[in-house]
Design goal:
The protein is of the alpha/beta class and 256 residues long. Helix content is 42%, strand content 14%. An eight-stranded mixed beta sheet has the order 3-4-2-5-1-6-7-8, sandwiched between helices. It binds adenosine-5'-triphosphate and magnesium ion.
Length: 256
C-alpha cells in the first residue's frame, strides 16, 4: 500500500506515519518512509538512531544529480523534462533501520523566497519512481499537498487525512480534500487522533459528512518524539494503530 498522510500542523501526521511504518516493518514488509516535511521529524519518531540521522543526505541535495540525469538544468525552475531512472540515486540517499528505508526531503527555501518548487519537483520525481515498486510506502506530508503532482497523486493508493476533534483541525480537512481532488486523488480517509469519547468521534464525522472516518486513536500521554512505540509501550497506541492498518488495507482490498 502506498499512502500519503496529511493534516493540519501538529495533529499527529508524523506519529501516525511512523507508527504505521513500524507495524509494516514488523510484518517484514520493508516499507519506504518518506519525510516530505522540511522539519524532518519522521526519522526520530521511527526510532532511527541519531548517528544515522546525522549522516542522512537530504533529497534536496539530489536535485543537481537528477537534473543531469534528466539532461536539463536544475536552475531553470528545478523542473525535469524527462522521467529518468533514479533507482541507483535513491539507494544512495536512503537510510535503513528496523527494516524501514527512510528518505528525507531536507531543508528548503533557498534564497529566502519561500518557494519550494525545485524541492517539490525532486520529491515528485522520486515518488514517481517509488510508487511503481512493490514495497509499501508512507509519505509524511506538510498540510498542503504541493509535493504531489497529478501523476504521483494518482499513483498513491490514497490520502490519509489526520485530524483532531477541535475546530481548527477540522476546518482544514475539507481544504485538504479539495486540494487532493484538484490533483486527481480520489481515495481519502479521515483518521481522528486524540479522540477521547464517542461524542468527539461524532463531532468529527458530522463535520466531514462527505468523507469516511476510518477510525480514531485516543490520547497516549506516554508518546515520545524519538520513537513512537517506546514511550507508548504501556498504552494501546500500537494495537489501536494495528486496527487502523487493518481497516486501511480492507478499504484498499475493497477498491481492488
Ligand atoms: N494521540 C496522541 N496522544 C498523545 N500525544 C500525541 C498523540 N498524537 C500526537 N502526539 C504528540 O503530539 C505532538 C505532535 O504530533 P506529530 O508530530 O505527530 O504531529 P504532526 O502533524 O506531524 O506535526 P507537524 O505538523 O508539526 O509535523 C508530538 O509531540 C506527538 O508525540
Ligand atoms: Mg510532522
Amino acid at each position: 500500500m502506498k499512502i500519503a498522510v496529511a493534516g493540519k500542523g501538529g495533529v499527529g501526521k508524523t506519529t501516525v506515519t511512523a507508527g504505521l511504518c513500524r507495524l509494516l516493518a514488523e510484518q517484514n514488509r520493508g516499507p519506504w518512509a518518506i519525510d516530505a516535511d522540511p522539519n524532518n521529524c519522521l526519522g526520530y519518531a521511527l526510532g532511527f538512531p541519531q548517528y544515522l540521522l546525522d549522516d542522512v543526505k537530504p533529497l534536496s541535495d539530489m536535485r543537481q544529480m537528477l537534473a543531469e540525469r534528466a539532461g536539463s538544468n536544475a536552475g531553470q525552475g528545478g523542473m525535469f523534462s524527462l522521467n529518468p531512472d533514479v533507482t541507483d540515486i535513491i539507494a544512495d540517499y536512503e537510510i535503513n533501520y528496523y527494516d524501514i528505508s527512510l528518505l528525507v526531503m531536507g531543508i528548503v527555501d533557498e534564497g529566502g523566497t519561500g518557494c519550494m518548487c525545485p524541492e517539490n519537483a525532486t520529491l515528485r520525481t522520486i515518488l514517481r519512481e517509488l510508487v511503481h515498486t512493490e514495497r509499501d510506502l508512507m509519505v509524511d506530508m506538510v498540510a498542503g499537498l504541493e509535493h504531489l503532482g497529478r501523476g504521483t497523486a494518482q499513483a498513491v493508493d490514497g490520502l490519509l487525512i489526520i485530524t483532531q476533534p477541535n475546530r481548527s483541525a477540522l476546518r482544514t480537512v475539507p481544504r485538504i480534500h479539495k486540494l487532493a481532488e484538484d490533483i486527481g486523488l480520489t481515495r481519502m480517509w479521515v483518521l481522528g487522533n486524540n479522540v477521547n469519547s464517542e461524542e468527539e468521534a461524532d463531532r468529527i464525522q458530522q463535520s466531514i459528512p462527505q468523507m469516511p472516518l476510518l477510525g480514531t486513536l485516543g490520547h497516549y500521554p506516554q508518546i515520545q518524539d524519538d520513537d513512537v512505540f517506546v514511550g507508548a509501550s504501556g498504552s494501546n497506541l500500537k494495537s489501536d494503530l494495528s486496527q487502523i492498518l487493518t481497516k486501511l488495507e480492507a478499504q484498499l482490498d475493497g477498491d481492488a
